[in-house]
Input
Amino acid sequence: MADSLKSMALQGLGVAWVPRFSAQAELARGDLVVCGGSAPAVAQAGGGSGQRGLS
Output
């Protein structure tokens, strides 16, 4: 399920709350970004900033 949610976030379809370990590579490449505060990481779609959102 985490992979499906991550895939949708990578397509710019919204945000995804997934385990950080399932998105480590995408976070390292900058394909996904962590959004929010000190709470668990959330994947966020990139909007118009050129970045795509996660974790």
